[in-house]
Design a protein that fits this description.
With 407 residues, this protein is an alpha/beta fold. The protein contains 12 helices and 17 strands. Strands 1, 10, 11, 12, 13, 14, 15, 16 and 17 form a 9-stranded mixed beta sheet that branches. An 8-stranded parallel barrel has the order 2-3-4-5-6-7-8-9, surrounded by 6 helices. Helix 2 runs parallel beside helix 9 and helix 8 runs parallel beside helix 9. The model has no long low-confidence stretch (mean pLDDT 96). The structure holds pyridoxal-5'-phosphate. Pyridoxal-5'-phosphate (PLP) binds next to helix 10.
């Protein structure tokens, strides 16, 4: 059963001051997850987690992750600026972008970030626009050598990264142009909970480290095997054993004799996903061919169910012990039939004003929000270890929405 880390009465007090919908992130949970990930690789020299900023782009979150030793993985200029605002700089930032504009390379280089190139063509583009840094990482796309999954697609159909031969050419070219230190990166799956997937990825990258050393005489110093660790969205889903992942990668690392190679990951979902909650209230209940619970949040606040048919568990707060004997589509008010948080979900009988908690909304949740139908983007709160709520982003107002209009 999925539980919530706050009391209904405390939430009601918060709602009295700040109308729903809004997001809550639990600080203690986020700290625990990042500690677990880093702990699983504590055997690896200078292991680094670069939190994928796009999952939850809020400097308050980046700051608390920084306190736990996490850096930031950025993919755009605003994300670089957010990382900077959170006090990160230098090689605590990794910049992984595709179809990258020059000014983003310039900013990444100025921050001293580890730049991770998506394309062979970008070696010269980066040189021309920002100058080549001393340290350069390249992104590998294994193509049909790997399976991929539904969220990220098959590697050979994915727009990211370079082929094996481009990768080899990239290292050679960068070395000729004076690059001194090298990294290797891949990201082939998202929301993946199979250990083998990640240990196979590690093996694939370790093979390349060996090949690059043997054929080009280049010692890769940093291997980033991406993010993508999945979380149990459904109550019956099993969490991936992160400690076991660390051990499997360790035995590969030792088998390949890679010390002092540094390892990194760039998880987003694993770190913040389970610790974020979208709080919404039932506005209307309607019965036609189906029962509908209309809530005050919409797909514009959380688009994963509408976009990927993703499951998000829903708790009717205070009704946890009632039998889930009614079947609802839980919907928002967008003029868009995908605007559903749940389809044919068994829940206790719902009525207007009921508080619903949408679980596992801490990654790729608020961040993917939008303003369709003039919906205003919701506030974000951090649930502090003392049980109080701290606002870390206010709700948008209609003035915000209209601020860019020119008439
Ligand atoms: C989205 C993304 C991540 C984070 O993915 P999660 O599934 O949230 O762990 C990491 N790296 C890159 C390059 C990404 O695009």
């Amino acid at each position: 059963m999925k539980t919530v880390p706050f009391k209904k009465s405390d939430l009601e007090k918060l709602i009295a001051e700040h109308p729903t919908p809004f997001y809550i992130y639990e600080e203690a949970g986020i700290r625990m997850s990042v500690k677990r990930l880093i702990g699983a690789f504590s055997w690896a020299p200078h292991f680094k987690e670069y939190f994928a900023v796009k999952a939850l782009p809020n400097p308050a979150i980046l700051r608390l992750l920084k306190e736990e030793g996490s850096g930031a993985d950025c993919s755009s200029l605003p994300e670089l600026v957010l990382a900077e605002r959170a006090g990160l700089s230098g090689e605590d930032i990794m910049f992984t972008s595709n179809d990258t504009p020059a000014e983003e390379f310039v900013k990444a280089k100025a921050l001293g970030a580890v730049i991770n190139l998506d394309a062979l063509e970008h070696v010269e583009y980066l040189e021309a626009h920002a100058g080549l840094p001393e340290m350069l990482s390249l992104r590998y796309n294994p193509g049909s050598a790997r399976g991929g999954n539904a969220i990220i697609g098959k590697p050979e159909e994915a727009k990211f990264g370079m082929t094996h031969s481009q990768l080899m050419a990239g290292y050679k070219l960068a070395k000729e142009k004076g690059v001194k230190r090298f990294g290797l990166h891949t990201m082939v799956a998202s929301n993946e909970r199979h250990l083998e997937y990640f240990s196979d990825t590690a093996r694939m990258l370790f093979d390349i480290v060996r090949e690059v050393r043997d054929t080009l005489g280049i010692d890769i110093e940093l291997v980033n095997f991406g993010g993508g660790i999945g979380i149990p969205y459904r109550p019956e889903d099993v969490e991936m054993d992160i400690g076991e992942l660390g051990e499997r990668v360790r035995s590969l690392y030792e088998e390949y004799g890679l010390a002092p190679l540094r390892l990194a990951m760039e998880c987003g979902r694993y770190i913040t996903g389970p610790h974020g909650y979208l709080i919404t209230r039932v506005r209307h209940v309607k019965e036609t061919y189906r029962k509908y619970a209309g809530v005050d949040a919409t797909m514009a606040d959380l688009m994963r169910p509408g976009m990927y048919g993703a499951y998000h568990h829903i708790t009717a707060l205070g009704k946890e012990n009632l039998p889930a004997r009614d079947v609802y589509d839980v919907v928002g008010s967008l003029c868009e039939n995908n605007d559903k948080f749940a389809v044919q979900r068994s829940l206790p009988p719902l009525e207007p004003e009921d508080i619903l908690v949408v679980h596992d909304a801490g990654a790729h949740g608020h961040a993917m929000g939008f303003n369709y139908n003039g919906k205003l983007r919701p506030a974000e709160f951090l649930l502090l270890p003392d049980g109080s709520f701290k606002m870390i982003r206010r709700a948008e107002t209609m003035d915000d929405l209209f601020a860019t209009l020119v008439d």
